[in-house]
DNA sequence: CCGAAAGAGTTGACGTGTCAACTCTAGATT
DNA sequence: AATCTAGAGTTGACACGTCAACTCTTTCGG
């Protein structure tokens, strides 16, 4: 019933342009982060999340929730970052509970510097060049999109808004 | 040097929201494409590009240019898609020239169906829910960003050796 | 107490993406 | 003509992401 006619050329062009802008921007930001801090985007996300936990150890499940990453993705990333010396898995007590995750000193250092540098890049590449109107439209669109897409996940779950 | 003060909390929040919207949207679109057409995003891009070449064979270099992908990325993707039977590398004549790339019958079929389905999803998930004002602001921002980022590509030449 | 089910985390296989090193040919240099 | 070099394409190593299968502990039902 849903007539699936192909996109009009100008629709494709619009979509293509938009996606290209996102891709180029993401590429530029990630390259700079890598070059200036020797930290990848995935590492950055992980570092920020652990950094925000302010020294407290986090469980894999919390990281997964907070980053909106698959648990297995978190685990793989932790393995890589453990090798790099950014994080450590610390076993819980004798009760056999699984690992808590914490930043190493090296991880803290990297997190601080990366947050500063990356924040600066975001400001320079993006925020500074947005007109107030653009910013407000983009914010509105983002809210709209996130609402729609996140509600889709829990379909039958509680409304969440309390 | 530009003073690199950390982003204000509301700036982070804005950036975070925007990125989350992009991420959720991309995830949703890719999942649907995968589920409905059994075609990944990378495969889709490749299929579309070859499809637009209207049966004509393309060289790896042209694909690389047209997709804005690294040549090695193109080559790896071709290898995978050759295994799936979507594309074939056809050797040029006896002059030893390298491969030309073409869609197989199977590839054509997949391209047609994926373009239809994916286009429909883009329309439903995105285009239909954009107000004209949002669309025009997003288009303007995208143009602005693409201009700035694409012009930057030439000038980041590796200096050092004068 | 024993065993099934549930929850947390890990692992392996594989597709994707990047970087650097490599092969092969063609055209330029001498 | 012999070689050097530039361009095209491939390959291997490794980081990133996803999916399904697995381990281990806790918990719940008999």
Automatic annotation (TrEMBL), chains A, B:
Residues 11-147 form the HTH marR-type domain. It comes from the Bacteria. One of its GO terms (molecular function) is DNA-binding transcription factor activity. Gene3D superfamilies: Winged helix-like DNA-binding domain superfamily/Winged helix DNA-binding domain. GO terms for biological process: response to stress. Transmembrane segments: none annotated. PANTHER family: MARR FAMILY REGULATORY PROTEIN, TRANSCRIPTIONAL REGULATOR, MARR FAMILY. Coiled coil: none annotated. It holds the Pfam family MarR. InterPro entries: HTH_MarR-typ (IPR000835), MarR/SlyA-like (IPR039422), WH-like_DNA-bd_sf (IPR036388), WH_DNA-bd_sf (IPR036390). It comes from Actinacidiphila cocklensis. This is MarR family transcriptional regulator.
């Amino acid at each position: 019933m849903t007539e699936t006619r192909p996109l009009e050329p100008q629709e494709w062009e619009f979509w293509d342009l938009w996606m290209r802008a996102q891709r180029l921007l993401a590429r530029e930001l990630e390259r700079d982060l890598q070059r200036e801090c020797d930290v990848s985007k995935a590492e950055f996300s992980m570092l920020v999340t652990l950094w925000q936990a302010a020294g407290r150890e986090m469980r894999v499940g919390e990281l997964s929730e907070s980053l909106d990453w698959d648990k297995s993705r978190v685990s793989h990333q932790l393995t890589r970052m453990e090798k790099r010396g950014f994080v450590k898995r610390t076993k819980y007590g004798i009760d056999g509970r699984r690992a808590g995750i914490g930043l190493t000193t090296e991880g803290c250092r990297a997190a601080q510097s990366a947050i500063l540098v990356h924040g600066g890049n975001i400001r320079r590449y993006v925020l500074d060049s947005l007109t107030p109107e653009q910013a407000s439209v983009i914010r509105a669109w983002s809210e709209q999109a996130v609402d729609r897409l996140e509600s889709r996940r829990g379909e039958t779950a509680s409304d969440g808004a309390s």
